[in-house]
Amino acid sequence: MKKILVEISIPEGFEKRNIWVFAGMDPIQRFLQHKGFWEVKTDACVRCGKCCEAIGRDHPIEKFIGVGQNGCLALERQGREKLCGLGVFRPMRCSVGQNDFVKCKVKWASIK
Ligand code: SF4
Ligand code: SF4
Fold this sequence. Notes:
The chain is mainly β.
């Protein structure tokens, strides 16, 4: 992994919020308040689409996009990959919530 040192200034009033650092639409670093330390993404999304296929009609995305038998209706197959058809307009909850899916390949490690 290539290391680049970046200093982030946290504006007053945001110290108790979860903080996400994005590369394009992919979160690559995060500070989650309940964990209390910074983490870096070590394994990226493999675009298997399983997280989007696993959601049911009780998922909040149902209200905005719709959920069918194969999960979110915005999911599109592109070659061997399955991608969100919303592109950069995908919901924030989707960008930061992939790891909720137990078979997800994305991995995070704490930054020492
Ligand atoms: S909006 Fe996109 S990222 Fe979110 S569940 Fe649907 S296909 Fe997946
Ligand atoms: S399950 Fe994980 S690896 Fe697969 S598409 Fe979703 S975020 Fe990417």
